[in-house]
C-alpha cells in the first residue's frame, strides 16, 4: 500500500517538474531569440563606424577568417587574425601566452573588441563566444571583408 501511495505522489511531482521544465524551455527560447535580436541590433558596427573606431585606435579588430583566406584575399588594415576555432581559447589565454602567439596585447573584458570575417557569419559566432566569456563590449562588423573591400577598392560610393 505504502509503495503505491509513494508512487502516485512521485508521479504527481514528476508531472509538475515536466510542466516546469516545459515552461523553462519556453522562456529559454524567448531569451535566445531576444539575445539574437539584441546582438544583431546593438552589437553590429557599420563600415563608417568601423573606420572611425580604427582611426581612433580605440578598438582591437579581430579577423576570424582562416589565415589562408587572409593571405589570399587581403585584410582590413590593423586587424589581428585569430581564426574562429581559436577565439574561445585565445580569449581565455594567459596574457603572456596571448602576446607570444598573436603579437598583440590581450584585450581586457571591458575593451572594445570588433570581430570581422568575410560576410558576417563567423564574426557573429565569435561575438557570441566573446560575450559568453564576459567581453560585454564586443561587437562585430557584419559587412566583413566583402563589404570593406567593395568600399575601399572600388568606385562605389561609401556606405554608412
Ligand atoms: O565569413 S562568413 O562566415 O560570413 S562566409
Automatic annotation (TrEMBL):
<dbReference type="InterPro" id="IPR036873">
    <property type="entry name" value="Rhodanese-like_dom_sf"/>
</dbReference>
<protein>
    <recommendedName>
        <fullName>Sulfurtransferase</fullName>
    </recommendedName>
</protein>
<dbReference type="InterPro" id="IPR001307">
    <property type="entry name" value="Thiosulphate_STrfase_CS"/>
</dbReference>
<dbReference type="Pfam" id="PF00581">
    <property type="entry name" value="Rhodanese"/>
</dbReference>
<feature type="domain" description="Rhodanese">
    <location>
        <begin position="55"/>
        <end position="157"/>
    </location>
</feature>
<feature type="compositionally biased region" description="Basic and acidic residues">
    <location>
        <begin position="12"/>
        <end position="22"/>
    </location>
</feature>
<dbReference type="GO" id="GO:0004792">
    <property type="term" value="F:thiosulfate-cyanide sulfurtransferase activity"/>
</dbReference>
<keyword id="KW-0808">Transferase</keyword>
<feature type="compositionally biased region" description="Basic residues">
    <location>
        <begin position="1"/>
        <end position="11"/>
    </location>
</feature>
<feature type="region of interest" description="Disordered">
    <location>
        <begin position="1"/>
        <end position="25"/>
    </location>
</feature>
<dbReference type="InterPro" id="IPR001763">
    <property type="entry name" value="Rhodanese-like_dom"/>
</dbReference>
Amino acid at each position: 500500500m505504502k509503495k503505491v501511495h509513494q508512487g502516485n505522489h512521485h508521479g504527481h511531482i514528476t508531472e509538475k517538474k515536466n510542466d516546469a521544465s516545459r515552461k523553462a524551455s519556453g522562456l529559454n527560447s524567448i531569451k535566445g531569440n531576444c539575445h539574437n535580436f539584441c546582438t544583431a541590433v546593438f552589437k553590429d558596427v557599420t563600415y563608417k563606424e568601423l573606420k572611425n573606431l580604427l582611426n581612433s585606435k580605440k578598438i582591437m579588430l579581430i579577423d576570424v577568417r582562416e589565415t589562408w583566406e587572409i593571405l589570399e584575399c587581403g585584410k582590413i588594415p590593423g586587424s589581428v587574425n585569430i581564426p574562429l576555432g581559436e577565439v574561445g581559447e585565445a580569449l581565455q589565454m594567459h596574457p603572456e601566452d596571448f602576446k607570444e602567439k598573436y603579437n598583440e596585447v590581450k584585450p581586457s573584458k571591458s575593451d572594445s573588441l570588433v570581430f570581422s570575417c568575410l560576410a558576417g557569419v563567423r564574426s557573429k559566432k565569435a561575438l557570441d563566444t566573446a560575450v559568453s566569456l564576459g567581453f560585454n563590449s564586443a561587437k562585430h562588423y557584419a559587412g566583413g571583408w566583402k563589404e570593406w573591400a567593395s568600399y575601399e577598392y572600388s568606385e562605389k560610393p561609401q556606405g554608412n
